[in-house]
Here is the input.
Amino acid sequence: MTVININIQKAAEVLRRSNFTTAYTGAGISVESGIPPFRGEGGLWTKYDPNLLDIDHFMEDPLRAWTIIKEIFYDYFGKAKPNRAHLILAEMEKRGLLRRTITQNIDNLHQEAGCQHVYDFHGNSKRLVCLSCFSYFPAAEVSLDHLPPTCRMCGGLLKPDFVFFGEGIPHIAMSAAYEAATVSDVFLIVGTTGEVMPANQFPLMAKDNGATVIEINLHESNYTPVVTDIFLKGKATEMMELLGNALFAPALENDQDGVN
Ligand code: APR
Here is the structure.
């Protein structure tokens, strides 16, 4: 049996025995849905200036900011669909093998895959918020033909409801992340460098609280040498597929044998 298969079996056993598993995801889980990561090869920050997503920059020149935001997050990413990794996490949740998903991603793909208990740590691009009357609108219902978009209630400036650099983390997501890092006995980290504060502290907190950490990543991350107990090195879809087979297959085998 190969090392990866041994680790997959170990990870599946840990997940089966878990009382409270949290998935902790970053851009790497959505790469195979066609959404590039922020860092590393082909990363967004190698093509665009991260200041694009700075709140002061947005307020100084909303038209310029919205022109690029529309290009990246609505024209390009807007059509992305959940991949097998998102779908297997949703199946795990359905079977009681996953209790929470804390994501740094703003693409809504966990929700679209069917996960019910998702906390968007950096907000969600599928909603726009009015900076004057604080009304919320589904992005799909707001035309981006004329930029910057304005609020149909008060005429105020609309902003994507995701966290810009210089903004605070949504309170609900922050408290959900703290709770998850406190109560989880397994943290499943998928596709994140662990570069960005304060998002990057929660796997460390979970580990300090006694959680077993399983990590899926193409490459070693900041977490791998520090908190990771089982490292599944590879693409998120491939590793999640192997994990899903190991988790779900025995039940299927038993059903086929008519044992249950
Ligand atoms: N499968 C698994 N992991 C992958 C894959 C893949 N197909 N492709 C890339 N990765 C890994 C990379 O090795 C890297 O560790 O995903 C990670 C992506 O890292 P980042 O681009 O830094 O994304 P993330 O960690 O989510 O960034 C955190 O930074 O700019 C902010 O707000 C932004 O939420 C983002 C935050």
